[in-house]
């Protein structure tokens, strides 16, 4: 047979192929950024008193929170608290 038929030979196979469930592609695994100094946008819940403390000095409070957290993980004293 030189030319294949226009219709499939088995209508059941054609129908199953037409209504076959589509597999959703898996989202690619995202590795954390390895570039130094790149900041990640996150949302955290902190106490109002903590927020007020860092915002009291004006703009840059997010940087101050970041610096304090970085010092905490490095084991250095923060120097931003009052020693009562």
TrEMBL record:
Q: Taxonomically, which superkingdom?
A: Bacteria
Q: Which InterPro entries match?
A: BrnA_antitoxin (IPR025528)
Q: Where is this region: Disordered?
A: 1-35
Q: What is this protein called?
A: Uncharacterized protein (DUF4415 family)
Protein's organism: Mesorhizobium sangaii
């Amino acid at each position: 047979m030189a030319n294949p038929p226009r219709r499939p030979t088995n209508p059941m196979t054609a129908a199953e192929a037409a209504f076959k469930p589509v597999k959703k592609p898996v989202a690619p695994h995202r590795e954390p950024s390895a570039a130094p100094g790149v900041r990640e946008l996150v949302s955290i819940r902190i106490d109002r008193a903590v927020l007020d403390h860092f915002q009291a000095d004006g703009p840059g409070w997010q940087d101050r929170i970041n610096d304090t957290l970085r010092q905490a993980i490095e084991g250095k004293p923060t120097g931003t608290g009052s020693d009562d």
